[in-house]
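can u pls check wat happens w/ fe (ii) ion
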Amino acid sequence: MKYAIFGDIHANLEAFEAVLADAAEMGCTDHVCVGDIVGYAADPNRCLAIIREMGCPVVKGNHDEEAILHTSLEGLNPLARHAMEWTREQLNEDECEFLGNLKLVRQVRDFTIVHATLDTPGGWTYVTNKFDAMASFSYQFTQLCFYGHTHTPRIYSKGDSVEPLEEMSVQLEMGRKYFINVGSTGQPRDGDWRSSYAIYDVENQEVTIRRLEYDIQTAQDKIIDAGLPEMLAHRLSLGK
Ligand SMILES: [Fe+2]
């Protein structure tokens, strides 16, 4: 049994399709999504449809939540505001209901999934260092938890202390816990434009983060054609 665990798709269909194709090639049997299906890029409806067709476990991301609210977007920066206004216009009632019903935290088999943090899952704060990770570990009751939100893949390991690993793969050890950011499928921000997702190989007790090239040009053209801010297309190339 192998899980493909992805998130922060952000309506980037080309990136999402590349991840799913790679996952199939790698022999993944199950799919899991850690949230932020929509927001930023030009294919929110298609990305949502694929997730729903797969019927895979999903948790809610902050963009999934924001997209179905009718609250003012005054507090957001102009780029995010424009993208969110556009995304809200695209979603129908049924899609909003699906997003609205997503839970913040779920357990799948023997692991947990959350979008942002386990200590305040609906607060949408960011885990950017080992101290943030320690706060989440306090609420982690499974050996393994997968998350997203920072758009930067990272593996934190907890034994006597909490440390981020240098490597992008880990052999799970008994007695240790792991809090693993799967990176972003549709809008990586670690300076590497390639899509990111994780494979959890249950039999071998191994987690590996994979990076993949995808048809970025088409994704960028669609963003421009949709009338979304050009910067949203440009940043995909920068991996920011
Ligand atoms: Fe995100």
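The chain has a mean pLDDT of 97.
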